[in-house]
Predict the structure.
Amino acid sequence: MDIFVQQLVNSLSVASVTILIGIGITLIFGLAGIVNFAHGEFLMVGGM
C-alpha cells in the first residue's frame, strides 16, 4: 500500500507539470498567435 501511495503522488506531480507546460504553450499561442519555440528551452533550463 505504501508503494501505491508513492506512485500516486509521483504520477500526480508529473501530470501537474505536464498540464502546466500545456497551459503555458496554449496561453502564449492564444495571446501572441505564434508558436514560441523557446518555450521548450526555458523548460530544460528550469529543470537543471
Remarks:
- DSSP finds two helices and no strands in the chain.
- The chain has one domain: 2-46.
- The chain has a mean pLDDT of 92.
- Residues 2-46 form one domain.
